[in-house]
Design goal:
Length: about 550
């Protein structure tokens, strides 16, 4: 065991002791010991108790723990504190700039138990409501979390694609005679990416310095960008570019079966679809398992989205007031906006009390009187309580134009508990949209287990739309369940869950996920224009 490994465990012990309220003088001793151990050039795991004390000047208590660790592979008191602390909370200490005091606030005051939940709290501007956390600190924590995640070898499409496009442009600029394209998971718009993949119709002559090439062969280069992001560049002859682009883009086994026959050489990928008498399948759709129902002409596009549903204002945990959000939606060309601030149970997000709900309604009425050809609807993101009830009485729920029902608390459920809770909420006569169905955070939180088929069937029976939360950290409902929802006639709402003006543009990520699932405009709620949407939200479920 290296001195650094020993030091890390001593530091962890001190941090956990401070987190759990141990004497500050004692915990500071462990912090000092961490620095002292790291500086040692002697292998401490080879020394006796007296030698450690003599050589390093460390106290007896610290020396005893080093010996225990060297002999048994663990420190018993550290194991005790680990058992008292959720693993996700312990992970928070890995975030640069985050120590016991901050972790204590995240865990004990904000109720966050994973790094992923903390990241999402940053995106929702929740930290700034707590003493000692201004916008700059919140931004720094978010940046440091994203860097921590990047070390794990998996990346969100939204984060990695801009870099991939930069490199693509650099490769093309340095090799103007070559035809170079993105391929692989990025081309198929997979929400999570393992590596960046390119295809070139010949070997590269030059490449950007930031590409650290570690392996070369006759048909590829591979390596890393920025030390931790993997990439590979495939080479082929121009006359086989279409064949190789098809192959390296990949897709489901059902997609591969379409081309399970000898194919001629093709410069253009589209020519191969003609050979097998198959209409061109966009790359993002190639992970589908049934192409017979795919109508590419009807796939949802950005221009088809007419309204913005699911936004948060300064009435709860958003950064902008309702008027500013409406003006931004008008600027972006939308016809309507649904304000859906958090409900009263979301205390952490300044959820709306009944009195504040009525005040917000009056503000929305006043703004609507000033607007032409644009309408703001009175919505709410109502918490689904542990028993499946929504957290307002019916007389308040009936006053909203639209209710999104979402789970935000008590996420640690087995499937039976989750299903009972969700189904009761879906059956509530005032629920119009089921929000972020599993509660997942990509690369951060798995989400509670559910039976998707039963939930979709239940939404169909109760005329409830399902949200495709467009935040690239969520993308929940997953694209792979959209074909079944579409078959059952369940409308999908592509919602940004925006907490600031820039967040409205997250709709683009939802559109990509929707296309990946083969979603048609006729099955997308906010592809309805203002008149059709008003008719839909006025039709009560009981009818």
């Amino acid at each position: 065991m290296t001195n650094k490994e020993i030091a890390d465990q001593i530091q962890e012990l001190g941090s956990l002791m401070e987190l759990h309220g141990e004497n500050e003088f004692k915990t500071r001793t462990y912090s000092s010991a961490y620095l002292q151990i790291k500086k040692q050039d002697l292998a401490l795991d080879q020394l006796s108790l007296s030698e450690i004390q003599h050589q390093t000047g460390l106290g007896k208590s610290i020396a005893e723990k080093i010996v225990e660790l060297s002999q048994t592979g663990k420190i018993s008191v550290l194991e005790k504190y680990r058992a008292l602390t959720p693993s996700g909370v312990r992970e928070m200490f890995k975030i640069k700039g985050v120590g016991p005091k901050k972790v204590k606030i995240f865990w004990q005051e904000m109720g966050l138990e994973t790094v992923g939940e903390l990241l999402y709290a940053c995106k929702e501007n929740r930290l700034i409501a707590f003493k000692g956390f201004g916008p700059k600190i919140q931004e720094d924590i978010q940046t440091n979390i994203e860097y921590l995640y990047s070390q794990n070898g998996y990346f969100l499409l939204a984060k990695i694609r801009p870099l991939a496009l930069e490199i693509l442009n650099e490769l093309r600029s340095l090799n103007p005679s070559l035809h170079i394209e993105l391929t692989g998971d990025i081309r198929r718009l997979m929400p999570i990416i393992r590596q960046i993949e390119f295809l070139s119709d010949g070997p590269l002559k030059l490449w950007p310095e930031r590409l650290q090439i570690t392996e070369k062969s006759d048909d590829s280069f591979s390596g890393f960008v920025e030390d931790h992001i993997g990439f590979i560049i495939f080479f082929c002859d121009l006359k086989e570019f279409g064949n190789q682009w098809l192959q390296t883009t990949s897709g489901s086994s059902q997609f591969a079966k379409l081309f399970d026959l000898p194919l001629p050489q093709a410069t253009h990928e589209e020519d191969l679809f003609s050979v097998v008498q198959q209409a061109f399948i966009p790359p993002e759709c190639r992970d589908l398992t049934d192409f017979s129902k795919l109508n590419t002409a009807l796939l949802v596009q950005p221009k088809d989205i007419k309204g913005v549903i699911h936004t948060h204002s300064t009435w709860s945990d958003g950064l902008y007031d309702i008027r500013s959000i409406a003006m931004e939606c008008i600027r972006l060309g939308y016809q309507y906006l649904v304000i859906t601030d958090h409900s009263k149970s979301a205390v952490y997000a300044n959820g709306l009390s009944i009195e504040r709900v009525e005040m917000q309604w009056r503000e929305i009425d006043a703004i609507n009187k000033e607007l032409e050809d644009f309408h703001i609807y009175k919505g709410i993101e109502s918490d689904i309580l542990s028993d499946g009830c929504l957290d307002y009485p019916n007389d308040i729920l009936s006053g909203f134009d639209l209710v999104i029902a979402s789970i935000h608390s008590n996420l640690k459920m087995d499937e039976d508990k989750a299903m009972i809770r969700l189904i009761k909420a879906i059956e509530n006569p005032f629920t119009r949209i089921l929000g972020h169905l599993t509660g997942r955070l990509l690369l951060a939180r798995k989400g509670y287990p559910v039976d998707h088929i039963k939930l979709i069937d239940c939404c169909a029976a109760n005329h409830v739309a399902i949200e495709l939360n467009a935040n690239p950290v969520r993308l929940d409902i997953g694209w792979e369940w959209l074909p079944y929802a579409q078959d059952k006639g369940v409308l999908i709402a592509i919602n940004p869950d925006a907490h600031n003006l820039k967040g409205i543009t997250d709709i683009q990520f939802g559109i990509e996920a929707a296309r990946k699932g083969g979603l048609n405009t006729s099955n997308c709620l906010n592809c309805m224009d203002q008149e059709a949407f008003k008719c839909w939200q006025n039709v009560k479920k009981a009818d």
